[in-house]
Write a structure and sequence with these properties.
- This protein has eight helices and seven strands.
- The protein has helices at about 15-30, 45-55, 65-70, 90-95, 110-125, 135-150, 155-160, 170-180; strands spanning about 5, 35-40, 60-65, 80-85, 100-105, 130-135, 165.
- Helix 1 (about 15-30) packs parallel to helix 2 and helix 1 (about 15-30) runs parallel beside helix 8.
- It is globular, with a radius of gyration of 15 Å.
Length: about 180
């Protein structure tokens, strides 16, 4: 079973549009036979975990002592397998290195850091062709602005390492195309 890491924000609440979108993505991934791996906590991490679990999928949560010391939070109830890390840095590398592909949902500073680090890791490992998809108009616009303003610093091959998708269904289609 291939594992897909899903990054995303911790602020969306159950019932909100971003939460529902993340839950839909989790369900679509599970229905397509993928295990999902998230940060394991709240917000879109919880929503993806919930969507996957409720669709019969396997959910991996990569949790962290530093995060739990910073904010009183525990792994969400849909996590079936926990990978525990002492530091945020170690957690990030588990999320990036121990997957067959990654999708980034809308999010904030943490999600931006995850995107930048994943992209950088793909850049320095040119034979690594794992799919990396940014979901949503916000990331598409951010990526477009970044590459149009600073594309001189980003080789074309590296610009092509990130795909964008407007919705979970399209993200899944692009993921499947890249993995086949």
């Amino acid at each position: 079973m291939k594992t897909i890491t899903v990054f995303g924000g911790s602020l969306p609440q159950p019932g909100s549009a971003p939460y529902r979108e993340a839950q839909q993505l989790g369900a679509l991934l599970a229905e397509s036979g993928f295990a999902v791996q998230t940060g394991g906590y709240i917000g879109t991490m919880e929503a993806v975990s919930r969507g996957s679990s409720e669709a019969g999928g396997h959910v991996i949560g990569v949790t962290c002592d530093e995060i739990e010391a910073w904010r009183p939070v525990a792994p969400n109830r849909w996590v079936a397998q926990q990978k525990r890390c002492p530091t945020l840095r170690e957690r990030l590398y588990v999320l990036i290195d121990e997957c067959d592909g990654a999708i980034a949902l809308p999010g904030g500073i943490g999600t931006l850091a995850e995107i930048a680090l994943t992209w950088s890791q793909l850049q320095i490992k040119p034979k690594d062709t794992r799919p990396f998809i940014l979901l949503g108009l916000g990331w598409a616009r951010t990526l477009e602005t970044f590459t149009s303003e600073l594309g001189l610093y980003i080789p074309e091959a590296d610009q092509k390492r990130i795909l964008t998708a407007p919705d979970p269904t399209t993200a899944l289609q692009k993921l499947q195309e890249q993995l086949l």
